[in-house]
Design goal:
This protein has 3 helices and no strands. With about 100 residues, it is mainly alpha-helical. The longest helix is centred in the middle third of the chain and has 56 residues, at about 35-90.
């Protein structure tokens, strides 16, 4: 609480009871430390929707990474088959000069 009141002159806080309370509320609103409940709830909803979108993107990236691993394995297999075919053709003397 002391850091909350750090920017307020002490005579304002101790001097006038109700006036101090009004000043404190206005000051909290002006500095953005006191916001309406609807604004707070809207901000939380936005945060939750962005979090959900991030988690969905992370899941999609995991699926893509797994798919790429599978495709890479398939490409390696294809490369080995093609290399073996090429070597077989060369040994038999076929192919283009």
């Amino acid at each position: 609480m002391s850091d909350l009141l750090a920017g307020i002159p002490p005579e304002v806080v101790t001097g006038g009871g109700f006036a101090s309370l009004v000043f404190l509320c206005v000051w909290l609103i002006m500095t953005g430390r006191l916001v309406p409940r609807s604004t707070h709830l809207e901000t939380r909803a936005d945060r939750d929707s962005w979090r959900k979108a991030f988690e969905d993107a992370q899941a999609t990236m995991r699926v893509q990474a797994q798919s790429l691993d599978e495709l890479l394995e398939s490409a390696k297999t294809t490369e080995k088959v093609m290399t073996a075919m090429h070597e077989t053709i060369k040994r038999r003397g076929g192919g283009r000069p």
